[in-house]
Design goal:
The chain has about 180 residues and is mainly beta. The protein is about 0% helix and about 70% strand.
Length: about 180
Amino acid sequence: DPVPFTVGSGIRAPGGVTYENKAICAQGSYDLADQWSLNAGLRYTDDDTEGWTTETVYYFPGSVLGGYFPARASATETRTPETQSAEPTWLLGLEHNPTDELMLYGKYARGYRQGSVNLASLAGWDTHEPEQVDSYEIGAKIAFEGRFPGTFNIAAFYNDFRDQQIQFGYYRTNGVG
């Protein structure tokens, strides 16, 4: 029985997401010379994500005269989106310590954010692939003594993203945002 005039809709969407994340990693440092050291790390990550939701949209009829009326129609959809992603990531850095109070460094790292599910999305759009970032950083760490001892750190960095995950909102065909 179609609802000719509606004043709105509401949604009930119980659901959940299960994450299974496994990784193996190693990191170490090697002294190249008295004041120079090399840092390296490697990680392999394997991620599985499974979601489930049963969405019921309730449509509330209206009248040109106004008033509240109970839901007269509903639509139900069950979805079970899932995704799997696995990526290696790493770190490579060089440190120079010309004095006990000064460390200069540079590093390059590959980062990763797993693919996942979005239960609030439409079927076909409810999963996304992993994100990668290449991060470049140079900086200095300085310690100082005297009347007011302390530290001063400065860094410059650049992040280069691929397949960046950006969240946005939209209205679905069932009228729910």
